[in-house]
Structures are given as C-alpha cells and as structure tokens.
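PROTOCOL LOG
Step 1. Enter all chains and additional molecules of the complex.
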Amino acid sequence: MATVANQAGAPAPTRRRSRSLSEKRLAVLMVSPSMILIALVAAWPIIYAIWLSLHQYSVRVAGLSRWVGADNYTSAVSSPDWRSALYHTIIFTVISVTLETMIGLGMALAMHRAFRGQGLLRTVVLVPWAVLTVVTAVMWRTMFVSPYGFINTILGTHTVWLGQEPYALIIIILADVWKTSPFIALLLLAGLQVIPDDIYEAAKVDGATAWQRFVRITLPLLKPAILVALIFRTLDALRIFDLPYVLTQGTVGTSTLSTIAQQTFATNRLYGQGAAMAILAFIIVMLVSFGYIRFVGGNIRGMTAE
Amino acid sequence: MRRGLGIAIVSTIALTVTACGSSGSSSSSSSSGGGGSVSGAKTLAASAMNSPPKGTITYCTGKDTTGDAAYTVAQFNAKYSAQGYHAQLVEFPASADQQRAQFIQRQQAHSSSCDVFSSDVIWTAEFSSQKWLYDLTPYVTANASKFIAAPLDTVHYGGKYWGVPQTSDAAFIYYKKGEAVPSTWQQVYADAKKTGGIVYQGAPYEGLTCDFLELAFAAGGQVLSADGKKSVLNSPQNVKALELMVSGIKQGSAPQAVTTYMEPETDQAFTTGKYGYMRNWTYAYAADSTGALKGKIAAAPLPTFAGAGKASILGGHNSVISVYSKDPGLALKFADFFASPAMQKAQILKFSLAAVIPSVYTDPDVRKAVPYSSQLLQALSQAHARPVSPVYPQISQAIYTNVNDALAGRVSPQAALQKADSQINSALATF
Amino acid sequence: MEASAATSAEAVPRARARTARKPKRDRTPWYMWIAVVAIVLFCLFPFYWLINMSLKAGSDLNGSSVVPHHPTLTNYSAIFKNPDFIASLRNSAIVALITTALALIVGSFCAYALARLKLRGKAIILGLVLSITTFPQIAIAAPLFKLWSDIGIFDTYIGLIIPYLTFALPLAIFILVSFFREIPKDLEEAALVDGATRFQAFRKVVVPLAAPGLATAGILTFIAAWNEFLLAVTLTATTAARTVPAEISFFTGATEHQVPYGSIAAASVVISVPLILLVLLFQKRIVAGLTAGAVKG
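Step 2. Run joint prediction.
Step 3. Record the structure below.
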C-alpha cells in the first residue's frame, strides 16, 4: 500500500523519514517489554481485585460465591471500622507529613550551612532511610515497651505506650517521622544547593534580616522541591502498612486503609469485602496523585521532550 | 502496532475475567446459625495409620513455650525412625491469631507444608466447613472411649469428627503458697489490691475472650442463643462481669498494663513476684515455677461469681490433618502417638499440660507430682465450650475488641457489650 | 551567568549544580554545630539503642538501661545458628538481585526510548509508569495471593519477583530517564553518523556512559526490594521463599517464654549492617537517585 501511495505522487522517502520510521519501531520495541510487564504485574491484579470486590465468598461453605455488585463498597464505606481506619490514616498522613517536612527542612538548612564533612553527614542522615521498616518498628517497640524500654524509666511513668489509644498512633507517627525526615532533608538540600548565592548577597546588601531572607528568598525558590517532597510523602503515608502491622497489628486505634483491607482479606477471609477495601484505598490514593500529575505534568513533559 | 497491542491486552483481560468466574463447586449445606454440616470432605480410614508410606511429616504448632512439641516429635522419631517414619517440627508465632493466620494462609494456598496442625479447639467449625481437614470419624469413633468427653466434643462438628484431641486446658488462679484462697471473683479483686494485684490476659486477642467469658459464664451470661442464631451477649449478667473487670483496673487491683498482656507477658509479670494473683492456663504451673517463685506457687480452680455460679472455659488443642498432606496415614499415626497414654502422661508430668485421656489422672505418679490433678480433671469435665460456629473468629473479635476498649477505659462496659452484640449479629449473618 | 543558568527554564544538570555551587561562606557558626550534633543524635540514637538491646540477654534485657550491664554476643550466635534466619537472608538476596537485574535491563530499554526516541504519547507513558508507583501494595497483594495459590507459585521466588517489579521497574525507569537525558546527544549522533543503528548506539555508547545512573538505579531498586514487607508476608509461608523482613516479624526466637527481643534486635542489626555499608559507599549516588526529578525547573 505504501508503494501505491508513493506512485500517487508522494515524495520519495528521505533518509530522515526512514530513520524516523525505524526509530519509531525501535521505540515501540524498547518500550513494550516494560509496558507488558507493567500490565501484567500492576494492571492485571487491580482488575482481578475489582472482580473479587464485586463478589462475596462464603466463609461458611467452601467454594461458594455470589455476585453482589457494589454492595461491598457501600458496606465498607458505611462500616465504622473502615471509617476509623480512614480517619486514622488521614490523621497520620497530615501530622507525619507536616512534621517530616518541617524537621526535614530544618535538617536541610543546617546541612547546607555546615559544609565541612558534608559527605559524612549525608551518610549519617541516610541511616534511618536505609534501615528496614520492619527493623524501625522493632527499634521503636523496644524503646517503649516495658520492662525493656527506657522511655518509661526516664520519664518515670508507667504508660503502656503501645497499648493505649492516642499513644500507639503517636509512636507510629514518631517512627515514621524518624525514618523519613532524612529523605526529605536530602530532597530539600538538593533544592537549596541550586539557589545561587548572589541573590542572598544582594538581599543582605539591601538590609534584609536572616528571617526575611528565609521567607522571601529561600522558601519561594524551594517551593518546587517542597511540593515534590510533600506529594511523595503524602502518597506514601496514605498507604502506610508496615509500621502499624508490626507494632500493633492495626489494633488500638492504629488501623489504616491498608491494614484493615489486609485483615479483612487474609484474617477474616472475607475476600470480596477485603478486595473492595483495597480498591477503595487505591481510589483514594489515585485521587490524590491526580492532583500531583496536574502539578508536575510540566516536569514529565520536560523529561520526555526531545 | 500499538493499537494491536492494546486490543490484545484488552481481550486477554476479558478472557481471564470470565475464566475466573465461579470458583470451585457450590457445595453442600445451607449453613444455618451455629450448627452446620459439611458434606463432600475427604475421609481418612482408621487403618491408614497402620502402614503408611515412609517419609517425613511436618507438625506445625505455635511457639513451643513448654517444650512439649519438641519432646513429642523427638519421641516419635526415636520410636519410628527405624521404620522410615520421621516427624519434624515447625513453630509459628506465639499468638493464637497468628497461628490461625499461618494455617489458613497455607490451606488457601493448597500448600502441603503442614501435615499435622495443632489446632485450637475453637477452630474446628471454621476449618472443617472450609474442607481443609480430613474427616477422621472412623478413627475417632473407634477410640472414643479413651478420651475425656469435653475435649472430644471440640473435634465434633456437623456430625463428624475432624481431629484427634491432643491437649486440653482449663485456667486456674495462681497465687503464692501460704496466702488465702479467695472463694469469689469479687474477693479476688478485693484481695488483689492488698497483695500486689492480679494479672491476666487483657490484650485484644482470643485470650481475652477466654478471660472475659470465664467471668461472664460464671455470672450466668451467654454469648449465643440456644439455637445459635442470635447474640445474647448484651445481658445484665455479662455487663456485671465486665464491670467487675473494669473497676478492677480502675481501682488498681489489676495493672493498666494488662490491656496489652498475652500469656508470655502475664508469665513475665507474675514471675517478678510483684503480683499476688495470676489467671493463666495449666502450663503456667511448671513454666512459672522458676527463679524467685520456685516451689512457691499454688493453683486454685477459678472462683465463684458472687451471687451466681462457677465456670471455666475449655481450652486446648487438637491434632488436625490437612487435606493437602502428602502422607495423611503417617500424619494420623503422629496424631495417634500424641494421644497415646505414654505421651499424655509425659505431657502432664513434664510440661504440666492437661492430658485428654482420663486414665492419666488416676495414675499414682501423676497424683503425686501434680497436686491439683483431680481438680484439673474436674475442671475439664465441667468446662464450658466457647460458641461453636464457622464464624467464631469474628464473634471472638467482636468480644475481645470491645472488652479491651472497656478495660482501657475508652468506652463504658454497657456501650462495649452493646457494640459487640450488634457485631456478633452481623457476623452470624455473614454469607 | 550562574544566576541566569539557574533561573532559566532549562534545568541545570544536578550533578554539575551540586559540585560547582558549594557556597563560599564564613566559618560555620557555633549554633550550627549544635544543630549538626542534634541531627546526628536524632538519626543514630535509635539504631544505637537497637545495638544496645542486641547485646543484652537474660535479666539484663529487663533492665531498660542505655548501656548493657553484661554485654554478650549470645544473641548473635543464636541467630546465626537459626537455619530459618540464614535461609531468609539467602531468599532476600536472590529475590532482590533478580528483581534489580530485571528492572535494570527492561527499564533501561524503556527509559532510553522515553528519553531519546520519537514516540507519541511518551508523556502519558511516563505518567503511567509514575502512577504505578503510587499503587497501594495491598491492592496488588490480595488478588495475587489468590491467583498465585491457584497456579502454584505461592511461596516461590518467582511469586515474589513478579510483584516486586511493580515498584522496581517504574523506579528504575524514572531514574534512568533522568540520567539518559543528561548524556550529551553529540556522542550518539556521532555514532549514528558513523553508521551505527539506534540500538547499537544505545548499547555501545549510551549504556557505558550511563553506568553511574544504572548503578544508582540498581542500588535504589535493590534496597527497595530488600525492604519490601507486605508482599513478602502475604505471598510466602515457609522458609522456601520467606525474605528477611517477613522472617523478623515471624521470629519465634530461641528462648522459652520470653519475647525474644534480644535475638530480634540482633537479627535487625545484622540485616541493617550491609545496607548501611551500601549507603556509606554509595551515598552520593543514592542522593542523586533520590533527588532525581525533584529539582527541575
């Protein structure tokens, strides 16, 4: 057919066009293994999960299942347990992301100024990030559980930290903040290092105080990095599973969107309801990340421009 | 080419979606309330254990805190390895919920990694209704007279027997020798304040269901209606029982920390010598007679609930055989070995775990070494079973989460039982 | 000139920015050193506490002291005698290595195409790849458990590697796209002029130049796979495939009726040491990878 088009008077293919055609073919070839893999490992399970969520699987009779449409979703959304989990997840996300960003920013500012031994400092700062999440949970558990932990000894209290409602969630927040503030610090440090000195010099000459320099120069120029950090961390916090699972098995007011879905699916063997909860978590995270894509869309386009 | 790929992906998805339509056979019973029936399960002949194929079976159990599991496996190997039969031990975490999760995960995955599983007595209805266990009726009916009736009942569901009793259990009040034995629960709590306190399992897990039901049943309350179709948890008797536990913590008769205790933590606390009383299972007698408390603890049956009655909860484990086992005959041989008089006697003598055969309790050696053996036999024979239902885990969850909330002071006892009551009713209505 | 370069729309390559822009400042004021000490304490103390716990045994464990009264190595010898722990180390290593290798190979192809070649909808593809990283693991773990059980790859290496690619592949692609873009086009153009095909240019010119980027992506993918918990716990049951994080949460320990915090702590220390060494050796790369795409215009 191409030859017919040629004969109809189309210009003979230039070397550039044929290279562009083979380039396109190569591009597709190079991209498709990833796309296929992604379809397999990410898209397929989600679709199967949606399928599961539209059914109920009997816990009494082996192998019995029935179609329930959207019932699992409505019952999850109206169930007080799931709502608690949603509430805990939101509280956890808001508090921990705020704390992490503030502490991370402080660490980044300090690291930016102390330029001697920066390599070593960066290594130290990466330790919390490098430590496994499970190990983090063990660490914080052993610090707070009597009689092994020292917190009660130092504070002179007898609080059962991991057994009481506000405290258990607080400890999980602390553990998460400890683990991820360094990561945010590094992100923000990279952002700080791109800000040229001249701007600060000029501001100093104009008589701006350190605080004014921080608020009027640093923060605005750091905004992109802060926003990226915020969004990455928000999405991670919404999906939190490891810490509550290991520290409290999601009890004592620490259930999250992920732990309650896992418990419903695996422990209670309510596959349909559990899958619905998992998809609900998925939808919530997707909604937040859509906001992200709108913001960073320019960035992605920039990364794929030729 | 991209478009072609897209179509291929969509059609693959469509095919798989329709392929995973109806899962398995829509088998058997209409499950009505607590009682039920299971049809279509695999039955294991009693003779299967006589000359099974040679090999190794895996015995899966929770953390072997007493050493009983390791001992039994070693004895089995000592006796049978010459004939080519071996057993190996795999330990799961200490908490019963996690043991159940581990077993369920394997059964759902059709894994043969556990041939024999030490199943808590409360799981029989659930596991058998999912057809994860071999029907052992031929073996059990042939040997029924050897076992104490109450433990034997725990392997009975839907008219069939699904396991071999292994250990039984009832709880005791442990105290330090020389102190007075309180006669009622109310007195226990009153005395506890003077003697350091009482520790028990109050974490939100199955153990708390037992601790609570011991008081609730003693106070005259129930969980399910007689036909097993409705919850009767929200009754004045149960509220009274819960109020006693809650005020116990408030007034300092029990430390606040009990709301996080499982069995290991309870042992830990009691062996420090600081606390006067402990509610724990039979194993604690031997396990906690160490260090400062060596030779100093005594066990008394659970007291009466003032103005009402006495009750104890039947605990224990049964040996169940997974339908995915590759050598069910050998698995049965192991289960039978575990229940043999020699092993049962060692169980109670060495590890203070209650035996499931009555002959052990009349043995003179046992009478001498275990001073409370006759009380134990009596406790076992009179123990109440927890509600029998394939959705028992959800019923228990409703009980223990809400009781824990009340103990921790987050809700009032009345509100807690009200919530548990409605959650149980939803559980009973589960598809 | 530097100011205009920074504020122009075209992003300055991060590597050049970091080294060239070391601020010339006065000597660090004393309060900054306090801040540094605070940072070091904040980051390292919990880990020190873990080491402290791992050196305690018996009644020392209940002591809640910040320094062990009778330091001992029994916990360490106990865990190394534990065949389950050794098996989980092996499982983690194999799964993480294979996942990383696959992610790098497949991902580098995709990243190169996205960074260099003409293709419609590349932004959409990259956006899609990025959005995969935001999937809640639970949404994948649950259906996979059911499926793997049915087709028989539950509790196997392949059963873990496949879902691990959900996060490993996008991570590798995203990092590699940034690195590929930084390689000057002239070198490839020169190769093409010399008659090489695009793919040969990719293989012989770009890949060697992107080695630092591949190393970065490899390290980050490896750490992510090593750290993964939810899928490991859901999709494995025995030591046949159970990885280290799942094993630690499963630890039944060697002692009788005590929760074995000593051994758990020792195991935790043991598995953290290789990661910390990795961080020590490669901290520059790791930081480069973590901040990829974060500091663009």
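Step 4. Note key features.
Chain B touches chain A through 48 residues (CB under 8 Å).
The two ends of chain B are 46 Å apart (CA to CA).
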